[in-house]
Design a protein that fits this description.
The complex is a heterodimer. Chain A has two domains: 71 residues, no CATH class; 206 residues, MetI-like fold (Orthogonal Bundle), CATH 1.10.3720. Helices cover 73% and strands 2% of the residues of chain A. Chain A contains twelve helices and two strands, in the order αααββααααααααα. The radius of gyration of chain A is 24 Å and the shape is globular. The two termini of chain A are 46 Å apart. By secondary structure, chain B is an alpha+beta fold. Chain B folds into two domains: 229 residues, Rossmann fold (3-Layer(aba) Sandwich); 112 residues, OB fold (Dihydrolipoamide Acetyltransferase, E2P). Chain B has a six-stranded mixed beta sheet, with helices on both faces. In chain B, α2 crosses α3. The longest helix of chain B is centred in the middle third of the chain and has 18 residues. Chain B is elongated. Chains A and B meet through α8 and α9 of A and β6 and α2 of B.
Chain lengths: 284, 362
């Protein structure tokens, strides 16, 4: 009997926890299908007639809100910008970070630990602290308002992250496995490509996902260092708030659309993350 | 002319000299066992030979060519690692096929298939080729790793204590099978172990490694019967050789040994000088008895314990010197510990070592 009481209590506890985390997301998802009037009603409604007006408006770049003038948004461009910046940053990070992580894991060289720590320390500095000098430099050398500049600055966030995560994975691979492959007659590069990288793949996948999320969610760098031409969704969403109206439905809709890419990527990468857990279990 | 020639090889890590001025000449097709206590540098030596590490000085010659500077993939050497070092993301088949694919880029798939299956069947792992390393037992992993090192018929195979991580039954099986398999390939084998029984069972010759160099290189029988130093003598044998300081004096036809006032005679010839030295005698070369005979010494029984189907007695001489004697089980039944006990030595099997250098004086 007591077991039943416990399991009922546990059930409600779970429900409460899930509600706490999922409710805001569910509510926003709901809001994205409502008109502004329905959202702003004094007693919120659970049942309403869903409308795709917000999504259509977002796609077409203009939306008429009842009682106000037509609004123009550049959300589509913002989304493309976000994609370019995030994919670009993660690609550059992978290209530079994975070999660097391997070097830090395998080779003991003078000042190696210091360089690795310096790279990590980039993450300690608050973005606001470095953004002003960066802004001045970039204006000076003509990099202000370019994808290249933002991808470069994003490396401050993504590169140390990937480097430190992937380094640990490389360290976990027994060097003997790489030596064995070379003794078979393969070159160093082949052993790196065919042994080290595949075995560190779970770590690389996890780190890439995190890097992507950090890059996608970045706000401050993109706000200061770029104009509306290259700004991602995080900054672009500001444009929804105007003096004349706050279109909550449109904002909710923008949030839903901007969360989707990260969500899809996470689902796609999940299988590598799980694979990592099971590979680790058989070591030794 | 020897096939593999190690000439004054040295390797140190910081100030730690692991290998210093090591020399050896190894013949083609020889089963060469490197035996040494843990930490003596056996694995480092193998890494120098395979090219994983580079020697600080000295030369490695293979077939009269210096291979010091060659990378691992450029040497005609394969290796089975103590920890197997299988590729976890490849099936056993691909693990074994790896050297074939690396060295002969254009080898047709059916030839690879044939060679992999041939070696796998020889090592009795034909039925697990489709499994990943994590699905294999330790014995199968070890055989897979051996198969990988043999599949391409390399000139030299380096085996780094391959039987260390497998259970006793497989270790014994492999001790029997391994020489048979390796003979079939007629390759030169350098085999590392820290088990003297394994070394003696497998080796054509054994090289005893400590203090950074080979102190003995000889057949198992010679090393056991005529060790070059007390240290080597101590490494071979379980329980280890008895050794005690003594003063010896050559007489006509025998040697008088004085151990702290206890004097006994060894009926044997020797070329060594009179004076102080260390006498070594293996536990199985001491005969225990309840009967007094011409050259026997009275001892006091302390304790006994069974070891590897033999019985080891600990006895004490009147002057306090304690000795281990090992007898067969049948012999031990004939001895009554409550009666007086006597020991005598199998005289030609005693050894004399220098008190300072511990070198064998004969």
């Amino acid at each position: 009997m007591s077991i039943n009481v416990w399991s009922i209590l546990k059930f409600f506890a779970y429900v409460a926890i899930i509600m706490f985390f999922l409710f805001p997301i569910a509510w926003i998802f709901n809001m994205s299908f409502m008109t502004n009037d329905e959202i702003l009603r004094k007693v919120p409604v659970l049942f309403y007639e869903p409308t795709f007006k917000n999504y259509i408006g977002l796609w077409e770049g203009e939306i008429a809100i009842e009682g106000f003038a037509t609004m123009y948004v550049y959300f589509k461009q913002n989304l493309i910008n976000s994609a370019i910046l995030s994919v670009g940053s993660v690609s550059v990070t992978l290209l530079l970070g994975v070999p660097a992580a391997y070097a830090f894991a395998r080779y003991k060289f003078k000042g190696g630990e210091d360089i690795a720590f310096t790279l990590l320390s980039f993450r300690f500095a608050p973005a606001l602290l470095i953004i002003l000098p960066l802004n001045l430099y970039f204006s000076e050398i003509g990099l202000y308002d370019s994808y290249f500049a933002l991808i470069w600055v994003y490396q401050l966030i993504t590169l140390p992250l990937l480097l430190w995560i992937v380094r640990g994975y490389f360290e976990d691979i027994s060097p003997d496995i790489e030596y064995a492959y070379r003794l078979d007659g393969h070159s160093w590069f082949q052993s790196f490509w065919k042994i080290s990288i595949p075995l560190a793949k779970p770590g690389i996948a996890a780190a890439s996902l995190l890097c992507f999320i950090y890059a996608w969610n970045n706000f401050v760098f993109a706000l200061i260092l770029g104009s509306s031409q290259i700004q991602p969704v995080t900054v672009g969403a500001l444009a929804f708030i105007t003096a004349s109206a706050i279109p909550y439905g449109l904002i909710a809709c923008g949030i839903v659309v901007s969360v989707l890419p990260t969500l899809i990527l996470a689902l796609f990468i999940q299988k590598y993350l799980v694979q990592g857990l099971s590979l680790g279990a058989i070591k030794g | 002319m020897s096939y593999l020639d190690l000439d004054n090889l040295s390797k140190s890590f910081k100030d730690d000299k692991i290998i210093s001025n090591l020399n050896a000449k190894i013949e083609k097709g020889e089963f060469f066992v490197v035996f040494g206590p843990s930490g003596s540098g056996k694995t480092v030596l193998l890494r120098l030979l395979s090219g994983i590490m580079m020697a600080d000085s000295g030369e490695i010659k293979m077939d009269n060519q210096i291979i010091n500077e060659l990378h691992p993939e450029e040497r005609d050497v394969s290796m089975a690692f103590q920890n197997f070092a299988l590729y976890p993301h490849m099936k056993a088949y691909e693990n074994i096929a790896s050297p074939l694919r690396a060295k002969n880029k254009n080898m047709p798939e059916n030839e690879i298939h044939e060679k992999v299956n041939e070696i796998a069947n020889l090592l009795k792992i034909g039925h697990v080729l489709n499994q990943f390393p994590k699905e294999l037992s330790n014995g199968q992993k070890q055989r897979t790793s051996l198969a990988r090192s043999l599949v391409d018929k390399p000139s030299v195979v380096l085996l780094d204590d391959p039987l260390r991580n497998v259970d006793a039954k497989i270790r014994f099986e492999m001790r029997l099978e391994l020489p048979k398999v390796l003979k079939e390939f007629n390759t030169t084998v350098i085999y590392i172990t820290q088990d003297f029984r394994e070394a003696m069972a497998l080796g054509d010759r054994i090289a005893v490694l400590y203090d950074g160099k080979f102190n003995d290189i000889d057949s198992p029988k010679n090393i056991y019967q005529n060790p070059s130093s007390l240290t080597t003598a101590k490494l071979f044998g379980d329980p280890t050789i008895n050794n005690f300081d003594a003063t010896i004096k050559k007489q006509d036809g025998f040697v008088e040994v004085d151990v702290n006032g206890e004097i006994f005679n060894l009926k044997r010839n020797t070329k060594i000088q009179d004076g102080k030295c260390i006498v070594g005698i293996r536990p199985e070369d001491i005969v225990l008895s309840n009967d007094h005979s011409e050259n026997s010494i009275e001892v006091e029984f302390r304790t006994k314990t069974p070891l590897n189907l033999r019985i080891v007695f600990l006895v004490r001489l009147k002057n306090g010197l304690e000795l281990l004697c090992s007898t067969t089980e049948e012999e031990s039944h004939l001895i009554d510990e409550n009666k007086k006990m006597y020991i005598s030595f199998i005289e030609e099997k005693s050894h004399f070592f220098d008190i300072e250098t511990k070198r064998n004086l004969e």
